[in-house]
Write a structure and sequence with these properties.
Blueprint lengths: L10 H8 L5 E7 L8 E7 L20 H14 L2 E7 L1 H7 L1 H14 L7 E5 L10 E4 L2 H4 L1 H24 L5 H4 L5 H10 L19
Parallel strand pairs: 1-4, 4-5
Antiparallel strand pairs: 1-2, 2-3
Helix pairs in contact: 2-6, 3-4
Length: about 210
């Protein structure tokens, strides 16, 4: 099935290179929709002439199995010029909202990169508070190679965080549903009430009685 899905291309990266940009960062986030846990963003700078047998396997993280994501996570980390990770916790999401929190996570990820990128390719959104040339691409995680790589890094990073949270807050099933609003998760919420990592501004969490 994976082989039949659209393969992201280097078209956007090549266009940036033609304009004289060399350090190009792909940026994506994971975790806008869950009821619990942080929103996590990744920024990935790849070598301009990258060549590897695993490149043909890269897809948007949502189109990959957990095993394939883990495999590619290791390869991308090894091949990248640099990778930045940004994380905004649930409490901050409740205070500023998920869209500003998403942009903040992306900004943190970009600021971690060394050397700093010359151009940003971002999935869907823009980052007006980041003073770098940039382009927001609709469905960028499907179409653009470096953004797809960022989606894999962000997804695996967040999933591992949620597995860790499952040990701190047992009974919610965070290791299985990763904080998304599944039936299992909502049943646990009704039984246990919200945990410290739940997003209290999100329905149905805000409708639950805090224990």
């Amino acid at each position: 099935m994976i082989n039949k899905l659209r393969t992201p291309s280097f078209l956007e990266e090549r266009n940036c290179q033609a304009q004289g940009y060399h350090r190009i960062a792909g940026i994506d986030e994971v975790g806008r929709g869950p009821l619990a846990g942080p929103v996590v963003a990744a920024a990935v700078i790849l070598p301009g002439n990258i060549k590897a047998p695993w490149l043909c396997l890269v897809r948007d993280s949502k189109q990959l199995t957990p095993q394939r994501r883990d495999f590619l996570f290791q390869r991308i980390n090894k091949a990248a010029v640099d990778i930045g990770i940004g994380k905004v916790e649930s409490g901050a999401i409740d205070k500023i909202g998920i869209v500003p929190a998403t942009r903040l996570a992306m900004k943190i990820a970009v600021n971690q990169l060394a050397p700093q990128p010359e151009f940003l390719l971002i999935d869907y959104v823009s980052l007006p508070k980041v003073g770098l040339p940039q382009k927001g691409i609709v469905k960028g995680d499907i179409l653009c190679f470096s953004i797809a790589c960022a989606s894999i890094i962000a997804k695996v990073t967040r999933d591992r965080l949620m597995v860790d949270f499952d040990r701190y807050y047992p009974g919610y099933g965070f290791a299985q549903h990763k904080g998304y609003g599944t039936k299992q998760h909502c049943d646990c919420l009704r039984r246990l009430g919200p945990s410290p990592i739940h997003r209290y501004s999100f329905k149905p969490v805000c409708e639950m009685k805090v224990r």
